[in-house]
Specification:
This is GHMP kinase N-terminal domain. GO terms for molecular function: ATP binding; kinase activity; metal ion binding; phosphotransferase activity, alcohol group as acceptor. It comes from Macleaya cordata. The protein is an alpha+beta fold. It is 39% helix and 19% strand. It has 14 helices and twelve strands. Strands 1, 2, 3, 4, 5, 6, 7 and 12 form an eight-stranded mixed sheet that branches. The protein has a four-stranded antiparallel sheet with strand order 9-10-8-11. The longest helix has 25 residues. The radius of gyration is 21 Å and the shape is globular.
């Protein structure tokens, strides 16, 4: 698959030049945080229940150019949003008003938070998390942040990428040594405590732990992780079953979640209620109400005690955990067709059992399922807006993009017309973990 193609020297140079102009310093003094977007081939919607998930980063994401300020001031500009954010690192940051714990619109829970009032919330959240973690900061940063050009990042966890970018920049400016696992927890503080989103740790883990060409496996209960190589990338190994792949991102054009969907936080609560019923029935009511604390055998014995909605959520959790384990084996053997079938089954369970998604995203999923060369597909994210992901035979990737664009335009002409033809369906490659250049 070649060397990493992102960020390019041109992209890095552009970010450095802007920061140099902001600060009056030389471009050689500007550091750049590279914080990639992530995809989750298998393990959809089970991280918040302590399930096992898989993830990898792509060659698109967030760039944050910065220098340490000479005082405690933080000054930020954005390539996507207007205005300038200013605050001091000695300011006390409090969780945002309302704390969003009952917000049922995932569009507000994720990157749309930037647009609501102050796009600097994630930077303030990073400061909150670092102080909450017992870190002492002496210097602020002067920085410029931007996302990959022309890319709608909905469904790719741009929120976690942004939060991690600010954490790494502030840590670098203050000579703090913080491990990736510690930063996973710090970004969780940004999202769970500061912004009130009830998500798990999949997104942060993928962005911080991934390695180029590997599939990252994360046990969200134990926090243990491992990197699984595909045989093609292991030196001196050949596997005739291995087929070279590309990653496709097909965008819906839907920027905001539909107002009548029950939302992300509601699904989390339903999973917890299902766990509570199953644990009580099995005599383990003292355990935390998470589905990872329910033994698979106890689920089989007591699942008939769950009412319809809760039964579907539990079925998704336990079947998805099984798909992850099978998918890791397929990936390790280089069996992309088997891996893809599991991804597609995950997508179907997300629709039928987790009951997420909306008409445009479901239509995109169905188009991808019949696209020539596609191994497997599912929503990228909750499916309330944003995009679908697919693994596709590298030799058929270009043909597949044309097929998807044409078929989607037939079904959703209004939404399709809002997409830039060059970025409506993107061909991507695997990325690396977040780091500072």
């Amino acid at each position: 698959m070649g060397c990493l193609s992102w960020p390019s020297e041109e992209e890095l140079g552009g970010v450095r030049q802007i920061v140099a102009e902001m600060t009056g310093r030389g471009v050689e003094e500007v550091r750049v945080v590279v914080s990639p977007y992530r995809i989750c081939p298998l393990g959809a919607h089970i991280d918040h229940q302590g399930g096992t998930v898989s993830a990898m980063t792509i060659n698109k994401g967030i760039l944050l150019g910065f220098t340490a300020s000479s005082d405690q001031q933080v000054i930020l500009r954005s390539g996507q949003f207007q205005g300038e954010v200013r605050f001091r690192i000695d300011e006390i940051q409090h969780p945002r008003p309302g704390n969003r714990k009952n917000d049922k619109d995932p569009a507000k829970d994720l990157s749309k938070i930037h647009e609501e009032c102050d796009w600097g919330n994630y930077a303030r959240g990073a400061l909150y998390a670092l102080k909450r973690g017992g870190n002492h900061l002496k210097q602020g940063i002067i920085g410029y942040i931007c996302g990959s050009e022309g890319l709608d990042s909905s469904g790719l966890s741009s929120s976690a990428a942004v939060g991690i970018a600010y954490l790494l920049a502030l840590e670098c400016a203050n000579d703090l040594t913080v491990s990736p696992t510690e930063n996973i927890e710090l970004d969780r503080l940004i999202e769970n405590e500061y912004l009130g989103l009830r998500n798990g740790i999949l997104d942060q883990s993928a962005i911080l732990l991934s390695s180029y060409g590997c599939l990252t496996c994360m046990n969200c209960k134990t926090k243990e992780h491992k990197l699984i190589h595909s045989p093609k990338l292991q030196e001196n190994q050949e596997n005739e079953e291995h087929r070279e792949y590309k990653i496709l991102l097909a965008f819906s054009g839907l920027k905001q979640a539909l107002p009548n969907n029950p939302g992300y936080n509601c699904r989390v609560a339903e999973c917890q209620e299902a766990a509570r019923v199953l644990l009580d029935a099995s005599g383990n009511g003292e355990r935390d109400p998470l589905l990872c604390n329910v033994e698979p055998e106890a689920y089989e014995v007591h699942k008939d005690k769950l009412e319809s909605n809760l039964a579907k959520r539990a079925e998704h959790y336990f079947s998805e955990n099984m798909r992850v384990n099978k998918g890791l084996e397929a990936w390790a053997c280089g069996k992309m067709e088997d891996f893809g079938k599991l991804i597609s089954a995950s997508g179907l369970s997300s629709i039928q059992n987790y009951e997420c998604g909306c008409e445009p995203l479901i239509q995109l999923y169905e188009i991808l399922m019949k696209t020539p060369g596609v191994f497997g597909a599912r929503f990228s994210g909750a499916g309330f807006r944003g995009c679908c992901l697919a693994f596709v035979d590298a030799d058929q990737a270009v043909e597949a993009t044309s097929f998807i664009r044409n078929e989607y335009h037939k079904l959703q002409p209004d939404l399709a017309s809002q997409l830039n033809e060059g970025s409506a369906v993107l061909i991507c490659e695997a990325g690396d973990s977040a780091h500072v250049i």
